[in-house]
Structures are given as structure tokens and as C-alpha cells.
Specification:
Elements (H helix, E strand, L loop, with lengths): L1 H24 L27 E5 L4 E4 L8 E6 L5 H9 L4 H6 L3 E6 L12 H7 L5 E4 L4 H6 L2 E3 L4 H6 L9 H5 L1 E3 L2 E5 L5 E6 L9 H13 L2
Helix pairs in contact: 2-4
């Protein structure tokens, strides 16, 4: 009887853990949340419901992304972090298109694996100057909840943190340092009903969606609103 009681208790605990994990990921790929490599990610696709996730702002405040309560369509751009030179270049280029996207009535969210305190500070001075004054929201996904829910999270190789820190990068508190997880740079366009209408991902982090194509995507979800 004692053995049966112990087994029953373990089963209840495992079931409870499974439920908690499923709720936390909120309609994302809770079954396979983290891919073994960038090439093996399984991102959510056009027509899928956007997942709900909780991240943080630059000030460390909670930001609850709830697709059931969107006031406007959203363009969500996930990038690796301010330590990535290609991400800096891409963010700098966004100064040419964000004003037009915002005029269309579309919100712009940037999602980084850096901790809140490093979200802006880790960017190069040139990038900081380029995006200053633009109407966007910069968010920290240091716990990798959003990247897992979106299906763009993958495991980093052993020694990744040490390699970047030897280059002078502060990786403390990032999704890499905390969980060994990084996200593939991606773009998700989500309409006001919370449905994903466009997805761009590329395992090669050097390849990003061109600005003019991003504007066209924003124009299409705005027109459909």
C-alpha cells in the first residue's frame, strides 16, 4: 500500500507540472519548446493563434502580451541581443520604416534575450542614437517564455556564454546565461484578432527581413483590420 501511495503521489506531481508548463507557454509549442539547433525550430505559422506571454520592459516592469486584447495590429521582431552586431545593424535600419508602420496604426514590439537592464544599454551607441525617439516598445525575454511559445527558441552550444564574455559582452541574466537558450531572429505580424498573418524566420542570423517588405506586411495587416 505504501508503494502504491508513493507512485500515486508522483503521478499527481508530474501531472501538475505538465499542466503548469502548458499554461505558462499559452498555446505555443509546449510539446517541443526548445529546438536542438536554429535549423530545427518549429515556429508558429500564418493562421495560428498568437500565444500569450509575459516579458519585461526596459524598466523591469511586467509586460503581458495578450493577443485576445489587442487594440491594434502588432509587428513583433525578435532579435538575439544588443551584443549581436547584426542585430544592431538591423535595429538601426528600422529607423527608416518604423514611422511609416506606426502611421498605419500598427504597434512595433522588439523582443530581446537580454535582461531588462541591458536591453538598451547593450546596443551600440550608433544604434541607440538611430532608434532614439522612435515609437516602439523594447522588451526582455530573458526567461525565454516568449521565444518558446513562438517556437523560435533553440539550445546554444556549450561555452557560448564564455566565448561572448571573453569578447567583452555582458551576458549576465540573459536567456543564454540563464537557460542556455537563444531565439532565431524572427518577425511575426499579428492582426487585431490575435491571429498570426505573417512569419519570417531564418536560421542564418545574418539574414533579416528587408525594411520595405516589413512595411508591406504592416500595410496588409492594417488594411485587413
Amino acid at each position: 500500500m505504501e508503494i502504491r501511495s508513493v507512485l500515486y503521489t508522483l503521478l499527481v506531481v508530474l501531472m501538475g507540472s505538465s499542466i503548469v508548463c502548458s499554461v505558462a507557454i499559452q498555446a505555443g509549442h509546449a510539446d517541443v519548446p526548445v529546438a536542438e539547433s536554429a535549423a530545427l525550430i518549429e515556429p508558429l505559422a500564418k493562421g495560428d493563434a498568437a500565444p500569450r506571454f509575459v516579458v519585461e520592459t526596459v524598466a523591469g516592469e511586467t509586460f503581458d502580451f495578450n493577443p485576445a486584447r489587442l487594440e491594434r495590429p502588432v509587428v513583433l521582431l525578435a532579435f538575439r541581443g544588443g551584443w549581436c552586431p547584426y542585430c544592431n545593424t538591423y535595429l538601426s535600419e528600422m529607423r527608416h520604416v518604423i514611422p511609416e508602420i506606426r502611421e498605419l496604426g500598427v504597434d512595433v514590439l522588439f523582443l530581446s534575450g537580454d535582461r531588462p537592464a541591458r536591453l538598451f544599454a547593450s546596443l551600440s551607441m550608433e544604434t541607440q542614437e538611430d532608434i532614439a525617439g522612435l515609437d516602439y516598445t523594447l522588451l526582455s525575454d530573458a526567461n525565454a517564455q516568449a521565444s518558446m511559445a513562438l517556437g523560435i527558441a533553440f539550445k546554444t552550444a556549450d561555452g557560448t556564454v564564455d566565448r561572448y564574455e571573453k569578447k567583452g559582452r555582458d551576458m549576465t541574466g540573459s536567456s543564454i546565461a540563464k537557460h542556455g537558450v537563444l531565439s532565431v531572429p524572427s518577425v511575426f505580424a499579428i492582426d487585431r484578432e490575435g491571429t498570426i498573418q505573417f512569419v519570417f524566420t531564418n536560421a542564418d542570423y545574418k539574414i533579416r527581413l528587408p525594411g520595405d517588405e516589413l512595411v508591406q506586411v504592416a500595410r496588409e495587416i492594417a488594411a485587413a483590420d
